[in-house]
Amino acid sequence: MHNRDAVFLDELCPKLRVRRWRQSLHSHTGKSCIYCGKPSESIDHILPRCRGGLSVTENCVPACLSCNGQKSDADVFDWYRRQRFYDPRRAMAIRAWMDGDLRLALRLLQWAEPTPRAVPSKSDDSGLTFQVA
Question: Which of 10, 25, 74, 125 has the most crowded Cβ, counting Cβ within 10 A?
């Protein structure tokens, strides 16, 4: 039996393919909202479907329910600039995502939200431990 003769589960069940695609979008950003950084629970269309936006990777981003609901069908950059959590690095990441450069978008998102580094602790002979501030 050849690979081309096989029937794949994705072909029989399109919903499974869509579910995997949605999960892959969330996994790209570590399950965080591309706009504010909170945990993502939904997929937002950057260019809304009512304005001709398609359900493709370049137009769909992980978003929390709050951001997705507030943005609604507004232009993404007009809406995002008015938010109190606006971050130009995230705005550049959204632009890179729209242009199809997911690698750059993910680097910009990491830059916008760096992971905290572990702080080494110092101790003296008395057994007391002090942390560097």
Answer: 25
